[in-house]
Amino acid sequence: MLTIFLPNAGCKYRCKFCNQYSMTGEKMPSLNYLKDYFNRFNNQSPKEIAFYGGTFTGLKLETQLTYLKLVQSFFPNTPIRISTRPDEINDENLKILKQYNVKIVELGIQSMYNDVLKASGRGHSVEDNVNAIKKLLENNFIVSAHLMVGLPKDSFSKDLNSFKELIELNVKLFRIHPTIVFKNTLLENEYYSGTYVPLDINEALDICSEQILISFAYNVKIIRLGYFVPEEQKKQIIAGPYHPSFGDIAKAKAIKKIIQRLKIKNVYFPKKYESWFYAYGNKNLDIKRNIWDGNLKFEEFSLQEASKLALKERKKKCGTIKNNQ
Ligand code: SF4
């Protein structure tokens, strides 16, 4: 995939946690830079082109068209993906996106709770989220929903419920980011004044491993879990549950939850899953590991069945969790 970063471009609000310049180190590319960049492909089309880092459909219409036409002039058949926010989805935008071969829309939902959205300075509502998803799906776009965990006014149950509500709306792709406090953001001020307390790494892993179980149970994909922060930008992280292998650790924790909650003694798996049962502390699990060519199984249960049962076990133990827990 060829990725073009347009840091904070088209954003009419600055969300409390966001400063794309700090987070990515990227600068706004000039059109000449993009032309040179595209020329280096010698007419060989990349599989996909993505405009990330801002609110593409929040850009002036003529700017959107300039980018889309530029891509089309170099790579006429290459599918495009853009990132945007729910309150910048409208019929006019969708018509243009369709016309220029945009297939996937990365949609910054972040939460399905209005108090969380408000406290995070998002500037849009849950109603905007629902309307945008419905409109995009009706128009045959693939929606990749972005969620954050550990935002101001967030909780364990709100994070899980937000995820489930989006699945019910028929979203199949997700990116989930634990909230990190970056330099030069409003959240940095709140962190220093003590009004925002970030999750610690264990709390974030607990929530996200539960979301992984939900994704297995409902057959949806989390295509990214945890921030990718380039090495040179790591000094911009002030606080929060950052780990370069956050997604892998959360997955290992989800597997551990299945094994412990269902008291599994035998696992059967193709070799490609081996790391799930050894990495990040899972080496010490008291299980018999059987490598085979069949599907991944926990005793007689498939991954999906085992995940559903593991979620049920948690519910049994915790009862109904209120939204502020
Ligand atoms: S989170 Fe998204 S919408 Fe908010 S300021 Fe950052 S890029 Fe813009």
Give a description of the structure.
The protein has 325 residues and is α/β, with parallel strands linked by helices. It has two domains: 2-244, TIM Barrel, CATH 3.20.20.70; 255-325, no CATH class. Helices cover 39% and strands 18% of the residues. The chain has helices at 20-24, 31-39, 61-74, 91-99, 114-119, 126-138, 156-168, 186-193, 201-218, 246-261, 303-318, and strands at 2-5, 49-52, 80-84, 102-110, 142-149, 173-178, 181-182, 221-225, 237-239, 266-269, 288-291, 297-298, 301-302. The strands form three sheets. Strands 1-2-3-4-5-6-8 form a seven-stranded parallel sheet. A four-stranded mixed sheet has the order 11-10-12-13. A two-stranded antiparallel ribbon has the order 7-9. 40% of the residues are buried. The mean pLDDT is 94. Bound molecules: iron/sulfur cluster. The site of iron/sulfur cluster has 10 residues, from loops.
Number of strands: 13
So what's the CATH class of the largest domain? Alpha Beta
Terminal CA distance = 40 Å
Any idea how many domains?
2
User: What letter string, H or E per element, gives the SSE order?
Assistant: EHHEHEHEHHEHEEHHEEHEEEEH
CATH architecture term of the largest domain: Alpha-Beta Barrel
GO biological process, one term: tRNA wobble base 5-methoxycarbonylmethyl-2-thiouridinylation
Organism: Thermosipho atlanticus DSM 15807
Keywords: 4Fe-4S, Iron, Iron-sulfur, Metal-binding, S-adenosyl-L-methionine
InterPro entries: ELP3, Elp3/MiaA/NifB-like_rSAM, Radical_SAM_C, rSAM, rSAM_horseshoe, rSAM_sf
